[in-house]
Amino acid sequence: MKVAVFSAKNYDREFLSAANATRHEIHFFEPHLNEETVGLADNFGAVCVFVNDRINAAVIARLASLGIELVALRCAGYNNVDLAAAKKHRITVVRVPEYSPYAVAEHTLGLMLALNRKLHRAYNRVREGNFALDGLLGFDLHGKTAGIIGTGKIGTVVAQILTGFGCPSLAFDPVPNDTCRSLGVRYVKLDDLLAQADIITLHCPLTPQNKRMINRTAIEKMKTGVMLINTSRGGLLDTVAVIEALKSGKIGYLGLDVYEEEEEIFFEDRSGLIIPDDVFARLLTFPNVIITGHQAFFTREALENIAATTIDNITKFENGLTLENQLV
Ligand code: NAI
């Protein structure tokens, strides 16, 4: 198939080209796919997109008019695709449901450890010749209660790692799983998790129902000084409420790999530019906040798996074979 890859970075070229070999005719485009750029998909059969491409109803309608038959997501989350519109226009949507839960789970633990032991501050201090320990006091993770919201593939690996650290875990998930139960994870109501956890970590998808689930009301129920980690989707947090809670000390530590308005910020070098987003800029001022730019997935193993599954999805679609990773 002729495939237009949007939001293409050097690593997309490297891994997709290696997985593809000569099977499909792949063209790489740097811009995000959105209403302004959709014309680039003219003369292609499929588009391949990532987390910050905006495949809304208008884009779908335009893709259909250009003859696009397949939207191949090279990620797991699909909150940026209007699936109903795709169905209406008979465009097939496939994704990569699993590529490395370890990548995201291990990054999540990295954020917890760095925040707790203030590694970001220690790194800078030592480089400046400052070996004082004041302000670097951490706590033992051992014995602290973790609250895992969403125990699918990633949440389960997080539970496994936290078990190794000696952290009892509570979980909230409408579909509890036996692997977590066998680890000793206790499924509880969301309110109980919020009230009892020392560390809360989000691993559920973003849906219209759970948008901004971590809002002022939810934060009020948390322990004072709680550690909050979000490597899932930015829209799960009400960021303004989170900033208020950081200012009051209610939230003691915040680790983010995602941000609701990340589309305009992440994945580019903006080091010489002014950040126009005041909410994001405020987050950057807190010493107890660590933000990474949606890099939790970014391991060699994950990129190899993403590329292999994406090419396989496209090949199966082209050959009319069963699509196990089909959304619509
Ligand atoms: P998964 O589909 O295996 O698990 C999601 C779990 O969340 C399921 O068990 C589901 O029942 C549960 N769930 C759904 N709605 C919920 C709610 N309102 N409250 C609590 N639990 C709920 O997904 P997986 O692979 O574990 O990924 C989780 C999320 O991680 C993805 O949806 C995506 O947003 C995010 N992600 C982030 C990446 C990054 O690089 N930062 C990379 C990959 C995924």
| Radius of gyration, CA atoms, in whole angstroms | 21 Å
Q: Main beta sheet, described? A: 7 strands, parallel
Average predicted local confidence, pLDDT: 97
Give helix % range: 25-40%
Portion in beta strands: 5-15%
Enumerate the spans where pLDDT stays under 50 for 5 or more consecutive residues.
none
What is the β-strand count? 12
Architecture blueprint of SSEs:
Elements: E1 2-5, H1 10-20, E2 25-28, E3 46-49, H2 57-65, E4 70-73, H3 83-88, E5 92-94, H4 101-117, H5 119-127, E6 146-149, H6 153-165, E7 169-172, H7 178-183, E8 186-187, H8 190-196, E9 199-202, H9 216-220, E10 226-230, H10 239-248, E11 251-256, H11 278-283, E12 289-291, H12 300-318
Parallel strand pairs: 1-2, 1-3, 3-4, 4-5, 6-7, 6-9, 7-8, 9-10, 10-11, 11-12
Helix pairs in contact: 1-12, 4-6
Entry keywords:
328 residues, 14% strand, globular, alpha/beta, seven-stranded parallel sheet, 12 strands, binds 1,4-dihydronicotinamide adenine dinucleotide
Give structural notes.
The model has no long low-confidence stretch (mean pLDDT 97). By secondary structure, the protein is an alpha/beta fold. The radius of gyration is 21 Å and the shape is globular. The strands form 2 sheets. Strands 8-7-6-9-10-11-12 form a 7-stranded parallel sheet, sandwiched between helices. The protein contains 12 helices and 12 strands. Helix 4 packs across helix 6. 1,4-dihydronicotinamide adenine dinucleotide (NAI) binds next to helix 4 and helix 6.
